[in-house]
Amino acid sequence: MMQRLLAVCLLLCAPLLVSAAALEELKLLNEQPVSGVSGGNLSGLAWCEGALWAVSDRDDQQLYRLESDQTQWQATAEAFVAPPAPDVRLPWGLRMRSWVAGLVRGGELDFEGISCDAAGNRYLVSEAHAAVLQLPVIGEPNWLNLPQGLVRQARASGMLLHSNALLEGIAVDPAGERLYLAAEQRRRGLLVVHKQRSIWRCTGGCVLFSEAGTEPSPAQLGTEEQPRDFSGLAFHNEKLFTLERQAHRICRRNLSNAEVERCWSFAAEALMPERRYPPAYGMAEALWVDQDGAWIGVDNGRFSRADGESRPIIWRFAAPQGGWSGKP
What we know:
Organism: Pseudomonas spirodelae
Protein name: Esterase-like activity of phytase family protein
Strand content: 35-45%
Keywords: Signal
CATH topology: Neuraminidase
CATH architecture: 6 Propeller
InterPro entries: Phytase-like_dom
Order of helices and strands: HEEEEEEHEEEEHEEEEEEEEEEEHEEE
Number of domains: 1
Helix content: 10-25%
Number of helices: 4
CATH class: Mainly Beta
Structural class: mainly beta
Shape: globular
Radius of gyration: 19 Å
Pfam families: Phytase-like
Number of strands: 24
């Protein structure tokens, strides 16, 4: 009986232990500002077909190919025309608030993430519509016909209930057969659908994981309690990697249940005095992970850093010692 109680305690306390433990700090290799992205709004990154691509939540009809001269990334827009977004049966109030926000700030579709498969197909997640737009290598853009149970199950688990806190990240496996989505906060969570004979299904349920609650911010931000969140998602080597904006960390998670296996911090570099922004919350929104490291993109919006830089920033961090699959 005592062993069972101890096992239950460890399971329940695991997220707290991850938060409290001193995490390995990732090493920053370089940072470069991005020129040419509308209004500083860089909300997603993906390495596709030999190039780094970005998406902005203010642009409904273009994404950006990025090229670096070692001092900055220059964005070149690639235009597309998205067909009308599908009705996934979000409540009328949520849809109206998203529609009004799109009118005011631009970006009615509110693209918050980008991913791609090995064939070069790209996938954009729309927060406002809780939907995924595919930009295929051949053919016209199309919205994936995701199962109706996806949104219903997410909402039943406490996710996708609040305006501007819907889907914030997307990751696709190289074969293009497993699609993962991250719900941002209040509750945050991870969803999955599988492609079977060209049909997307909830195999064994769409919800991998969900949780509510708060946790302390890094000491540089005053350790004030903030809602747990996800702001980016990546798939690498049969693992999920979550960008946890307010905690300033990347966590590796198991594919079957999204359980945390290990986390790494980027707070030491991101919160250097010259890199600080006026808001006391995290602003990293884009993540891509590969064998050699991680790309993290900062959506600074209208804010400038302490050093005066007003463009979005992309950080390149080295993979941790022992690689992303290493144990603590």
